[in-house]
């Protein structure tokens, strides 16, 4: 009886998501306005016309699930405990997977001024636990008397960086899903990834969870950039995820199922791409769109939602 009830909840939630006219997603909580992937960013987004909070997960040395776009402490964002900055191009020396969470908490991710985001509020803030983010967002949504948000959660894994920046996909998914289930947000969770291995595990073990295939165009130049820091990894490892060189049909060959969402770089979107995805039963939600003008262009083509750094474009 319990399983039947839960299945019903999943079905209703999925139908509600599918019935949405448009999905406004705050990228990393809206990094144009607040430090990315932090509690202040997510809470600010909840006060705006946002449907879904987009976020990224990483795994620490002591198996904590935290929010972080990069798998290392980024020189672009991070201030060291002594107030100095991480030298440019040395971020790979601060791998999150090699650091316990207590040490990561000594680094600040909200004080450094970002030239590309002049309106971002500066504050002292650390990378939060995934569980703390959910608690804060659920509580604040109720305080605001707004609908509870959806969560678009990216697993930061790639086939070429297992055991370097993250555990293998199965362990990553297990750690993440344990929290999602404990917090009871599985009916409002979308798991997104560039790594089809992650999505395959979700589809097999949690078939009612919504999924999104992230897609970027990876040509020879991009491939060389990715290989630069991974000298001993075979080239084949860098070709185990979609590259969009053969369009939507080529990307879909990396999966054994059809995900809920096809999520490409917005520069790849055309009316034909949208029509193809819709014919396969997928929504199209591109990233990262930061102007109202581009948002309207994409809406005119027929997209189903958008991921943006700047939630002000939804107002």
Explain what the structure shows:
By secondary structure, the protein is of the alpha/beta class. The protein has ten helices and nine strands. Strands 1, 2, 3, 4, 5, 6, 7, 8 and 9 form a nine-stranded mixed sheet that branches. Strand 7, helix 9 and strand 8 form a beta-alpha-beta unit. The longest helix is centred in the N-terminal third of the chain and has 18 residues. The protein is globular.
Topology:
Elements: H1 2-19, E1 23-26, H2 39-46, E2 52-59, E3 65-67, H3 101-104, H4 130-144, E4 150-155, H5 169-183, E5 189-193, H6 196-205, E6 210-215, H7 220-227, H8 247-252, E7 261-264, H9 271-279, E8 283-284, H10 292-301, E9 305-308
Helix pairs in contact: 2-4, 4-5, 5-6
CA(first)-CA(last) distance: 43 Å
Order of helices and strands: HEHEEHHEHEHEHHEHEHE
Report the helical percentage. 25-40%
Give the strand tally.
9
Cα shape: globular
Q: Hey, roughly how much beta strand do the residues contain? A: 5-15%
Class by SSE composition: alpha/beta
Biggest pleated sheet: 9 strands, mixed
Radius of gyration equals 19 Å
Mean pLDDT comes to 94
How many helical elements?
A: 10
- Give the low-confidence spans: none
């Amino acid at each position: 009886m319990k399983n039947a009830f839960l299945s019903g909840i999943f079905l209703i939630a999925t139908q509600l998501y599918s019935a949405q006219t448009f999905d406004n997603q705050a990228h990393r909580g809206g990094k144009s306005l607040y430090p990315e992937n932090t509690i202040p960013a997510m809470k600010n987004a909840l006060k705006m016309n946002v449907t879904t909070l987009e976020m990224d997960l990483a795994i620490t040395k002591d198996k904590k699930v935290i929010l972080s776009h990069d798998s290392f402490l980024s020189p672009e964002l991070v201030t060291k405990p002594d107030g100095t900055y991480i030298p440019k191009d040395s971020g790979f020396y601060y791998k999150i997977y090699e650091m316990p969470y207590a040490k990561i908490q000594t680094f600040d991710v909200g004080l450094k001024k970002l030239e590309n985001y002049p309106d971002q509020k500066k504050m002292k803030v650390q990378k939060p636990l995934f569980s703390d983010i959910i608690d804060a967002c659920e509580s604040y949504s109720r305080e605001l008397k707004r609908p509870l948000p959806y969560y678009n959660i990216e697993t930061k894994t790639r086939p070429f960086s297992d055991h370097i920046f993250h555990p293998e996909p199965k362990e990553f998914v297990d750690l993440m899903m344990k929290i999602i289930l404990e917090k009871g947000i599985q009916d409002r969770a979308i798991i997104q990834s560039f790594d089809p291995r992650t999505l395959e595990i979700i589809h097999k073990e949690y078939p009612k969870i919504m999924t999104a295939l992230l897609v970027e165009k990876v040509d020879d130049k991009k491939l060389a950039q990715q290989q630069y820091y991974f000298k001993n990894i075979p080239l084949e490892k860098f070709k185990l995820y979609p590259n969009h060189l053969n369009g939507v049909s080529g990307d879909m060959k990396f999966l054994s199922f059809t995900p809920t969402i096809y999520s490409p770089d917005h520069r790849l979107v055309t009316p034909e791409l949208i029509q193809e995805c819709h014919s396969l039963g997928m929504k199209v939600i591109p990233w990262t769109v930061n102007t109202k003008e581009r948002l309207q262009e994409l809406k005119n083509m027929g997209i189903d939602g958008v991921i943006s750094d700047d939630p002000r474009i939804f107002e």
